[in-house]
Design a protein that fits this description.
Blueprint lengths: L5 E7 L22 E4 L15 E4 L8 E2 L10
Parallel strand pairs: 1-4
Antiparallel strand pairs: 1-2, 2-3
C-alpha cells in the first residue's frame, strides 16, 4: 500500500518520543498539537515512498494524499 496515500495515525507527534518509548507497540504521547502520518504518498519523491517515512500535521488538516485504515480488535475467545 506504500505510495498510494500517507496513513493518518491516531498518535500525537513528539520529536523525542522514540528515545523513551516502549520497544513494542508504542502509542505515542497522550496529547499534542500534531498527529503523525506514516508511509509515503504519490506526491512525494520516490526516496520518501517507504514505510519508515514519517510526517505530521494538525488534526484538522485535510488533503487528498492522506488516508486511514479501519481496524478492530480481535474477538476474545
Amino acid at each position: 500500500m506504500t505510495g498510494n496515500v500517507m496513513e493518518w495515525l491516531w498518535d500525537w507527534l513528539a520529536a523525542d518520543y522514540y528515545s523513551y518509548s516502549p520497544v513494542e507497540s508504542p502509542t505515542g504521547p497522550a496529547t499534542g498539537l500534531y498527529r503523525v502520518g506514516r508511509g509515503g504518498d504519490w506526491s512525494l519523491p520516490a526516496t520518501s515512498i517507504r514505510l519508515a517515512y514519517r510526517s505530521s500535521a494538525a488534526p484538522q488538516y485535510r488533503h487528498n494524499n492522506y488516508g486511514f485504515r479501519l481496524c478492530r480488535k480481535a474477538a476474545e475467545q
